[in-house]
UniProtKB/TrEMBL annotation:
Alphabetical list of InterPro entries matching this protein: Acyl-CoA_DH_CS, Acyl-CoA_Oxase/DH_mid-dom, Acyl-CoA_Oxase/DH_mid-dom_sf, AcylCo_DH-like_C, AcylCo_DH/oxidase_C, AcylCoA_DH/ox_N, AcylCoA_DH/ox_N_sf, AcylCoA_DH/oxidase_NM_dom_sf
Domain Acyl-CoA dehydrogenase/oxidase N-terminal: 35-146
Top-rank lineage group of the source organism: Eukaryota
Name of protein: Uncharacterized protein
Names of required cofactors: FAD
Acyl-CoA dehydrogenase/oxidase C-terminal domain span: 257-399
Keywords of the record: Coiled coil, FAD, Flavoprotein, Oxidoreductase
Lineage: Eukaryota, Metazoa, Ecdysozoa, Arthropoda, Hexapoda
Chain coiled-coil ranges: 27-54
Gene3D superfamilies, per the entry: Acyl-CoA dehydrogenase/oxidase, N-terminal domain, Butyryl-CoA Dehydrogenase, subunit A, domain 2, Butyryl-CoA Dehydrogenase, subunit A, domain 3
Record has Oxidoreductase as a keyword: yes
Amino acid sequence: MATNALFKSAKLSFCTLQYVKKALPQVRTFTCKLNEQQQAIQELARDFANEQLKPNAAKLDLEGRFPFDHIRSLSRLGLMGAAVDEEYGGRGLDYLSLAVAVEELSRGCASTGMIMCIHNFLYANLVNEKGTPEQKEVFLRDFTRGSIGCFALSEPDAGSDVANIKTRATPDGDYWVLNGKKSWLSSAIEGSAVAVFATFDPTLRHKGLACFLVPMDTEGVFRGKKEPLMGVRAVTACDLTLEEVRIPRSYMLGHQGEGFRIAMEQLDQGRIGIAAHAVGIAQAALDTAINYAKEREAFGKNLTRLPSVKDRLTDMCIMVESARLLTYRAATELSTKNSSMAKYVAGRSAAAVADHCVQILGGRGLSTNYDAERHYRDARGTQIYGGVTDIQKRLVGHFLLKEHDAL
């Protein structure tokens, strides 16, 4: 009797599952297989990277020159507003499609991939998801057509400690007045607008933060000098000083006190982008190492036949694929834990893979005439920007214990 009842129950559950699958064909569980749309974006970005970015990456890096032409081309391809609603000139793609595009572009040129990544994940997506229709007309529509957006969170004394932000926002009738200094703004020299996080009441700590959209040509906005960077040298980064910057009250994104939540939610997205960026760099380093090892001979045989080199290439492959899977998972199932795991593993893997690449090339790996040293420099930053590796590890541990009611 019990066996028959169990069988009937199992049969019913199976039938119910089959019905749910038929009724909800759009439901997606995590898989490493890209759908047709994602594959099309991957192919589009890969072709552009191979044809336009890779041949010019070394020169852009050497000259430290912002890739204006490439960014304009990416705008025409719709990739500078990949996840933005079509109503405002975007493609309306999912995060995984955007992450795949960032990976492929970073594989061709880490600098261009990073510029596209930050513009999309930290600025365009933010305005698209949090902005009012009026804000989107001013701060989003043109930003799918070539204008570049920036994200101003870090300060000289507030990096990972967001609640310690000192930039002040003071109400003044129909305006807000901003005063303060922001650090490490990517693309700020070329940018047309910036999302600024400021406090309207320092005593409230994180509860006193708000987010403001500020046109870069507003009186009182001053860009600092370009920071000379170790890697991604075609990316510009500088300080931003705000002195009595008056903006309409309507330029506040969200409401007073929501700034911290908005920042944290956007950083969850940003970590996916940086993880994808790191995977692209790691893949480029693996490609460089394999291509070199296939041609180089030592002890009468190709390097690929030497056990030590083969072991390095194997480790590199495993690290790249592991980081890619975690990044896909984070882009598919967005959470702080998933995005932190992806960025933690992808950043560490990119640095390790690039190090192996230099080692395989030997003396040539140290030469600026070869790509290995550029991949090595580019990879190192992925453990810092977008949230340092140390913080990502702590976040993963926090949410792991929270899931198990162990805090």
